Amino acid sequence: MAIGSPQFSIQSLDALDSQNLEAELNNSKEELFNLRFQKATGQLETHGRIKAVRRDIARIKTVLAERRLKIRTSPQAVVKKDETEDKKDSAKKVAIEKTTDKKTTDKKSPAKKVTDEKANLSKNAKKE
Question: Which of 49, 55, 104, 111 sits a CA distance of 20 to 30 A from 121?
């Protein structure tokens, strides 16, 4: 397993929005400061924790940088993208429904109307 906290796996970091990632970054930096202080005073018991926290900070910074460069999308962006696609799909459906439900009206050019009337007159004349 990779060194670091299990709560800071890439999958769990992807689920967080940018504000929460910034908060986690600040908390991790504070923890690293405290660990270094404990090390300097000789009170640190688990030296491996420093390495784990440093890697957690690196993972968080990587996810934030990827989002800034639009390599990785934030959870909010994915939801917004889905909503816009749904709106586009619903707009297309409405447009299709309007065209199929609309009663077809005779909007013929005047020349066509005249020829159609002549054809009707000739049909009526033949019947008589």
Answer: 104
